[in-house]
Amino acid sequence: MPDHLHLIVNPKDGKIIEFTGQLKSISARTIVRDVPEIRFKVDSEGSHEVWQESFKAIPLWSAWMIWQKINYIHANPVKAKLVNSAKDYPWSSFGAFYSGSEEPLKVDKEWWWEEDSEKLSKSMKELGWRTYHKRG
Prior knowledge:
Number of domains: 2
Number of helices: 4
Low-confidence stretches: 129-136
């Protein structure tokens, strides 16, 4: 999305806040260094404010909830009227999930823990592969 992003992550150590902090720190330094034409607000300590302070972690306890969030993320650009179909958004994992493509984003399909993968696979089949298209 032009003004935000969604991630589904599952660190084995459970340290989601620490993971997110490191991700935001490393990416902010890279963006500031590699895209100097973007001017960010600088805080009182001299740090560039690339990311908002907000962070929302939602525990995904079931296969149904995981796939609901994946589908929500894929539908986001359609709802924002950026594309007519989720498959058309260039910065989406849609292709990786629904057509086996690894472009533009490769998805680590081992993001769920090994002991949950069989249960998740079964639930995916039961839920069916959902795709989002703008209804005309």
